[in-house]
Structures are given as structure tokens and as C-alpha cells.
Write a structure and sequence with these properties.
Blueprint (H helix, E strand, L loop, with lengths): L8 E5 L2 E5 L3 E8 L1 H7 L2 E9 L9 E6 L2 E9 L1 E6 L4 E4 L4 E5 L4 E8 L6 H4 L9 E9 L10 E5 L6 E3 L4 E7 L1 E2 L2 E2 L11 E7 L4 E5 L5 E13 L4 E3 L4 E4 L5 E18 L7 E3 L2 E3 L2 H13 L9 E2 L1
Parallel strand pairs: 12-25
Antiparallel strand pairs: 1-21, 2-3, 3-4, 4-11, 5-10, 6-9, 6-11, 7-8, 7-10, 9-12, 13-14, 14-17, 15-16, 17-22, 18-22, 19-20, 19-21, 19-22, 23-24
């Protein structure tokens, strides 16, 4: 058997508490030109929401996206989604919406608590009944398909594969593959994303072999875990980005259980021009997007693909 070599932690993002949208409280773990150099193809990671409705009910009203994919993974509450073409839906706890904005989506995302008068919604409760909490990840799209047809992938949590690794960890496979089991979504081959939600018992170890040259990141949700070749402690609410040395991400727990998100993907290494929710490759493409917004022609394809 080939000996594994654990990857070193290259950088830790502690995140910054801020607000976005119309005043939603969130923690921005990483996002922007500077961090994108390290996290490519992943552009931004937000941990949003609260158990206080006044901190999230203002939501993320109508706004555009172009050139990226957004992955919304809900832990508590619900998010009502609607786009300018009348497509709408609701994301519930453990559900994922994987949206390719591509040539252009104009939409709104409105976090809300579950309806405590609706027995079906109450059965979905995973936290406080006043909570709405989740993650949103932005993934860059290759230049050659940034202006392709938008696409929605609605992934129900109950249909997402969960694997017990036999060593004290259970792994929910949103995208990619783990121990021979494929996730709910394959993802674009140019990025080849892996997205796992990992829960660890006390005093256990989780390992994942990373493809050569791929970016790998873990974001700690709960508990205290150690990672990297030196066993660096990673506190909840922080993310570790691994270097290119080694071939395996190793995570261990000691006195407490842990939960984290694991991300891996192939860097695009393409120029990035970023203007709010629009990420393109040149300044002229950004200017074009702004002209499209001003002229009312931002939506190039009014018939997104649903998968």
C-alpha cells in the first residue's frame, strides 16, 4: 500500500462578521481577488443566518449574477428563491441548490424560519424554530462557458448519499466521490468539484486523497478538529487552505466530535475581474454586463436548464 503524505495547512481564514443583501448577518469566510489566488476555483464562502429573524428576514432581494456558480446548502430554516423569469422554489434543511448563473440570472433569495403552524415544515426542524442558517459557496466558471445557458440543480438532502467510513466518520457527498460512492452532482469537468459534509466522532481520523494540483479546503462548522501534517487546531467558523505538498488531507478529533465541510477542485488559473455578484475574465466583460443591466438586456437566455 502506498504511504500517504498529509498536506500542510498553507493559510487559515478566520472569517469576518458582516452583513450582505438587505442586511443579512453573516460570516464571510473568504472572498475577493486576494483570497481567490489561494482558493481558485472557489471564489467566496459565506456562513449566513441567525436564530434571530430580525438578523436575516431582510434577505437578499433582487440582484444579478453572471459568470459563476452559487451553491446554497441549508442547515436550518428555509430559503425562498425566485428569478426574474418566474422560476421559484424553496430550499429546506439539508437541501442544496446548485445554480449555474452562466450568462445571467436575476433573482432573489429570502431566508425565513420554518412555519410553526405547518406540521410538514415542523418535521423539517433541525435547530431553533426561529432559525435560518446555511452556507453559500461561489465557484468560478471557465471562460469558455461563462456565457452559456443558466442551469439549476435542486438537490434534496434525503436523496444525497451518506457514507459511513468505518472509522467514526459519516460523510454526506454533495458532489464528487468518496469511497467509491458518487455524490448527488458530478459538477463540471473543468473544475471537477468535491463537496463533502463530514461528521466525526470523538478520537477519530478522516482522510481524503486529493488529486495532484487540486485546491483543497476545509471549513469547520462545529467541534474542535486538528488538521494538516502538524495537527494544526481549526476552530469552528474558520477555514484551512492546504498547500500543494503532500497528497492527502488529514483531519482528526480528540475530546469532542467535529463537523466540517470539505472542498476540492481543479484551479482554473484564469484572469478574474470581479464586480459584486458578477465575475468575468476582462474589464470589458464587466462593462458589458453593466450596460446589459442598464439596458434591460442582462438575461440572455430566458429558459434555464433544470436538472
Amino acid at each position: 500500500m502506498k504511504d500517504i503524505k498529509s498536506k500542510n495547512v498553507e493559510y487559515i481564514y478566520a472569517g469576518t462578521t458582516t452583513t450582505d443583501g438587505a442586511g443579512v448577518k453573516l460570516k464571510r469566510i473568504f472572498g475577493g481577488h486576494e483570497s481567490a489566488v489561494r482558493t481558485d476555483p472557489f471564489l467566496l464562502l459565506d456562513h449566513f443566518g441567525s436564530n434571530k429573524p430580525e438578523e436575516y428576514l431582510s434577505g437578499f432581494p433582487w440582484h444579478p449574477h453572471r459568470g459563476i456558480e452559487t451553491v446554497t446548502y441549508l442547515l436550518e430554516g428555509k430559503v425562498e428563491h425566485q428569478d426574474s423569469e418566474g422560476n421559484r422554489g424553496t430550499i429546506y434543511p439539508s437541501d442544496i441548490q446548485w445554480m449555474s448563473a452562466a450568462s445571467g440570472i436575476f433573482h432573489q433569495e429570502m431566508p425565513k424560519p420554518l412555519d410553526d403552524k405547518d406540521p410538514k415544515e415542523l418535521l423539517r426542524t433541525t435547530g431553533m424554530t426561529t432559525s435560518s442558517v446555511g452556507f453559500q459557496l461561489w465557484i468560478n466558471m471557465p471562460a469558455k462557458i461563462k456565457m452559456s445557458t443558466p442551469m439549476y440543480n435542486g438537490i434534496q438532502g434525503k436523496t444525497t448519499p451518506v457514507v459511513d467510513d468505518g472509522n467514526g466518520s459519516t460523510v454526506k457527498i454533495v458532489a464528487g466521490e468518496y469511497l467509491g460512492t458518487g455524490g448527488s452532482l458530478k459538477g463540471r469537468s473543468e473544475v471537477d468539484p468535491t463537496y463533502l459534509d463530514v461528521r466525526m466522532d470523538r478520537e477519530t481520523e478522516f482522510t481524503f486523497p486529493v488529486k495532484t494540483g487540486y485546491t483543497s479546503i476545509i471549513y469547520s462548522i462545529a467541534g474542535e478538529v486538528m488538521t494538516g501534517s502538524t495537527g494544526e487546531k481549526l476552530l469552528p467558523g474558520s477555514a484551512a487552505v492546504f498547500g500543494n505538498d503532500g497528497d492527502t488531507v488529514s483531519v482528526s478529533s480528540r475530546d469532542s466530535s467535529g463537523r466540517f465541510i470539505f472542498l476540492s477542485g481543479k484551479p482554473l488559473r484564469e484572469p478574474i475581474y470581479w464586480y459584486g455578484p458578477i465575475v468575468m475574465n476582462t474589464r470589458e466583460q464587466i462593462n458589458e454586463a453593466l450596460r446589459d443591466l442598464q439596458s434591460g438586456s442582462f438575461i440572455r437566455d430566458k429558459n434555464p436548464i433544470f436538472q
